[in-house]
Amino acid sequence: MTIRHVRWPSRSPRRQSRTTGVRRAMGVLAVLVALVVLGVGAAGTAAAHPTLLFTDPAADTAVPIAPQAITLMFNEPVTIGADAVVLLDKDGATVPIGVATTARGAQVVTARPSAPLPPGSYTVRWRATGTDGDLVEEEFRFGVGYALTAAASGTNAASIAWLSAGLRWLLFGGFAIAFGGLIAQRFTSSARAENPRLPATRSWTIGALLVALAAVAGLGAEMVAEAGRVNVLWRGGSGVILSVEAAGLLAALAVVGVRRRAWALLPLLVVVGAEGWRSHAHTVAGVWGALLTGVHLGAAAIWVGALVATTLTALAWRREPAALRWVLSGYMRLAVWTFAVVIATGVVSALVLLPLSEVFSTDYGRVLVVKLVLVAVATTLALTARRIQRNEARISKVPSVIRAEGITLVAVLALSATLVSTTPARGAVQPAPPEPKGPVLPLGTLAGQIGVAVAASDGQLVVRLSAPHRGDFYAAQPDRHYTLSGRYGRPDGADAALPFRGCGQGCFVATAAWGAGDNVLSLAAGADDARGAPVSLLVPWPTRPGAEDLARAVAATGAAGQITVYESVTSDSASGAGAPTPLELSAEFFVSQQPYAAGSAPQAVRVSSGSGATRLALGYPAASISMLLTLDKAGRITDETLTDPSHLVTRRIVYPDHD
Q1: Is residue 124 part of a domain?
Q2: Do 130 and 104 reside in the same domain of the chain?
Q3: Cα–Cα–Cα angle for 150, 151, 155, nearest 5°?
Q4: Considering 86, 116, 144, which residue would you say is the last residue of a domain?
Q5: How many domains does the chain have?
Q6: 199 and 91 within one domain
Q7: Of 266, 291, 317, which residue constitutes the final position of a domain?
Q8: Residue 504 vs residues 218, 294, 429, 443, 523: alpha-carbon distances, Å
Q9: Do 211 and 263 fall into the same domain?
Q10: CA angle, residues 412, 414, 419, in degrees to nearest 5
Q11: 125 pairs with which residues across the strands?
């Protein structure tokens, strides 16, 4: 028997057909899912609108010279229309500008103003279409300042305070006439004791003391006006010295008023000591420097005051040869040793304060040279008077000679007052700037290779300059000589030069009446061993506290996940910054590396802006760092500019949801 094997189908035909359909459906579904995923990915990429990375001029800054072009750099190619870039002035009026063009693969947009832009603030409105086809519109602002040079209206650490010099001339002159006159009165007193018929000589002591006291009052008023408060006269070092001098002069006036003239010398010695204490030499050499200056000033005062008193006596007794010879002999003996002391102490002071190499290159050195020439002239006149005195036939000419000597010494006192009001080439510490009123707006930039730190406050501007550290970072650096000139324009169109005075090495302070809105500040900085350049900044005013905004911004930025940071760095503004470098990193790590990582800053203010974006200005004075932050609608940091003594760092932060 033959057995036939029958092969049974594993599935029924109907079931097999159904399975094949399911497989086909699954394949189609997989393709659809893949297309959806790819589409979503592509849409996600396309939905990311173009991001403006950097601009030239930089946003929220100013330039010293009108820009020839306005440049915008994006993170992706863009398409622009005829009105891609619009320029507005501070009043919102349209400024003529050429047709915008693209370059570098359509990632850079450039438009050129039709004419040079005058100083003031400007707003740039731009619109561009990204690869996603959406139109993006934003705006930023910049300012145009004034092209200055460090030599124009230049102020450096050795500048002369002319008002103070004039007041100190009156102080020194009045003090010398009173002090030296009181000492020289013994010559006339002894002559009249021998010959009571001699006429009484006129004394200028009281008038001289009143002039000196008025000069001290003027110096005090100047100090109060600069500091903005009266208590500087008893709480500050210089104010206390002026108060002591005023007390000494008042005491001398009181003693002279009760006819105890000789005792008036004691309170006047207090004035001598106070002037020695405030001197440049005291700053450099301590107590010995103060003593040196005190002896120099005292001897010079005796010489000048005794000469004035002797001249008045010689004119009154010109018909009494014997009495005239008596007085002249006494003055000559006194003048010999005072002259020797003045020359000796003056030479030592000059050697302490002024390097020989800078005698003719600094204001202090040039004034000192002129003073020495006049001292030589006075010495020649004194010797001439001494020779004439010995000739009986020519003694009547002595009053004319000593009158010329007196005029010369008065000029010497004027130059001495100028030297006191001029910072020497080394060693002297200038008065610190007055305490700021209200919040401080910290700003920073690079002027060539020189770091510029600006602190604007109510009615005041403080600028600190710093040049790059040379050689060994830990080695002592030589004293640098900085120059600075400045000018600022107010929002109302008014502009004025800034009257800077020195407040230490690289420190300058000036009064400034900020207007409400964007003030354009222009500076020209220079240093003897670093390349400087003119720069300009926008100073928005007024400001508001920004500590809470900073804390929220740091928290929001740190929680943003992965970010892209476009960074550009330069150490010389004249050479410009390089191409921005994109960095992919976590927001938390980025924030942890910033000065504001703790969510705070010693100085934090909120500044207004025409575009309505929130901007924070941060200052870290101890580290000489300033930062300007821009926040987006979510309160996150999108732009930051960091300035330290030798770098200018610009960053643009792009978030995954930056559209």
Answers
A1: yes
A2: yes
A3: 75
A4: 144
A5: 3
A6: no
A7: 317
A8: 24, 24, 6, 19, 18
A9: yes
A10: 95
A11: 86, 139
Q: Are 104 and 217 within one domain?
A: no
In this structure, what token pair is assigned to residue 446?
């690079």
The predicted model gives 293-309 an average pLDDT of: 85
Range of the domain at 61: 52-144
Output the six-digit token pair for 226: 């600069």
**CATH code: domain of residue 130:** 2.60.40.1220
Name the 3-class secondary structure at 162.
Answer: helix
Within a domain: 466: yes
Both 177 and 123 in one domain: the answer is no
Q: Is residue 137 domain-shared with residue 189, that is, in the same domain?
A: no
Selected residue with higher pLDDT from 165 and 179: 179
Quick: pLDDT tens for 403-458.
Answer: 787 788 778 777 776 776 566 555 445 566 778 888 899 999 998 889 999 999 99
Q: Which residues pair with 517 in a beta bridge?
A: 541
User: Would you state the structure tokens that stand for residue 317, as one six-digit string?
Assistant: 């007794």
In tens, the pLDDT along 80-95 reads: 988 899 999 888 889 9
Per the model's pLDDT, the better-predicted residue between 46 and 442 turns out to be 442
Residues 489 and 632 in one domain: yes
Residue 551 has a pLDDT of 95
CA 331 to chain centre: 50
Tell me the per-residue pLDDT of 386-399, one tens digit each, with 9 for 90 and over.
Answer: 777 666 666 667 66
> Is position 341 within any domain?
no
DSSP output for 173-216: HHHHHHHHHHHHHHHHHHHHHH-TTSPPPP--HHHHHHHHHHHH
Q: Alpha-carbon distance 158 to 359, whole Å?
A: 12
Packing angle between helix 265-277 and helix 287-316, nearest 10 degrees? 140
Q: Are strands 647-654 and 637-644 parallel, antiparallel or unpaired?
A: antiparallel
Please check whether residue 377 is in contact with residue 384, taking contact to mean a CB–CB distance below 8 angstroms. Answer: no
Which burial class, exposed, middle or buried, applies to 146 when counting CB atoms under 10 A from its CB (0-12, 13-18, 19+)?
A: buried
Q: What residue type is assigned to position 502 of the chain? A: G
Distance between CA atoms of 183 and 403, rounded to whole angstroms?
19
DSSP, residue by residue, 323-373? HHHHHHHHHHHHHHHHHHHHHHHHHHHHHHH--GGGTTTSHHHHHHHHHHH
What is the C-alpha to C-alpha distance for residues 390 and 397, in angstroms, rounded to an integer?
12
**Strand 101-103 with 94-95, pairing:** unpaired
Residue 331 lies in a domain: no
Q: For 547-593, how does the pLDDT look when each residue is reduced to its tens digit (9 = 90+)?
A: 999 999 999 999 999 999 999 888 887 776 667 888 899 999 999 99
Same domain, 540 and 600: yes
- 565 CB-contact burial (10 Å; exposed 0-12 / middle 13-18 / buried 19+): middle
Closest to 419 (Cα-Cα) out of 350, 504, 347, 505: 350
Say what the pTM is.
0.56
Q: If you search the block for the tokens 């033959």, which residue do you land on?
A: 2
What type of residue is 268?
L
